[in-house]
Design brief:
The protein is of the alpha+beta class. It contains 11 helices and 18 strands. Helix 7 runs antiparallel to helix 11. The protein is globular. The structure holds zinc ion.
Length: 390
Amino acid sequence: MINSLGENNNFVQYCKPVFTSQTQNTVAAKTNEQTSPRETTNLIMQYLENQARNNVSSTYNVSTPIWTHAFGNCDNMKVLDSSGNLVQNVEFKKDGDKLTEEIFVKCVNGSTVNKTIVNDGNKKSMTLTFKNKKGEITGRENRTYEKLDKDNAISVHNGKTYKISGLSGDIITVEYNGQKKVIDLGKKIQPTLDTIENKPTNKQISQTQKEFLLNSVKKLSGDLILKFDEEIDQMVMLDTDEYEGFYRNDNGVRKFKLSQKVRDDMTFCHELGHAINRIDSEGDNENKVRISDNKDYAKTREIEMNNFRNRCKNDDIIKPMNKFIYDDFIKKGYMSYEEGQKDGQDEEFAEMTGFINCMDVDWINNRVTCMLQFMPYSTQIIYKKNQELF
Ligand SMILES: [Zn+2]
């Protein structure tokens, strides 16, 4: 298979579970690679047997993250295994205007993740490569973005080109494959602020706050802007700097809420991930229906989480993983473990969607690299789903 870089790659899919059509998801139903529940169960059994055969506990016995300052708000990070091998590595470099971020993760099943982001003035690029433990490529994402002038930008994702125009105003156009989509971003801005508890206030949005929200969309790649337009009805400024952002479906109005402290597209794409995950046509506020409710995904996560709970004893690693594992579900206000898990599944879906698509060189939260290291099978399920969505 020839990829967008013209390289001849041998794509090997080592993990093939896909979301079945039980969620009535039209996107999932389109896939031509349906895996039967039995096949998926076999994969899980194979995984369990492999885990039992090899003494893998050592890969969970990792050091506390070692942070060193790079520049601005960017800090390098290293995590070593018990033999001193790098298992998580994040390195930032600055050369004039050119900023580079390199992320490497060696996962507990021997697979690896490499991501390089380069931001150079008006140009951004990203390469993400997943390899199995034999070193064969199992997935690759390429993104480039260039701001051509104050009105125009061009982005390419895995060989697909998107032209974006109208960037100096509130109405922008994304052109892809001969089709133009005109998006009135100004119309999507809620005129008043909301509290962190999702309550309305009488405070009017300021011009600066409005510009901030508009720019957080305008700086994205064309496919992400189209996805945003498809998934979001209203953008809301939060009346706080305490939290970063939220996605809420308020009685059918799909709201994307951001605080002014959010600068990076990782947070933006994480919240967009929550929006994508929610199946709008089903359920209501009390009974959310999400892609991540998928039983095979939940089962795979459960195995990975149990291995992690039994084998990792380092509190500095356990703490960031709680974003996805939800062992503190009572503290978080859930009535049961099962209820908490639904949101844990959603958080992993959102974080992986953010990681796959973000291309800003900015500070990294080590919960991302921990998730990649200890949850390689369930994160791959989300990656495969993302390949259908973008
Ligand atoms: Zn979230």
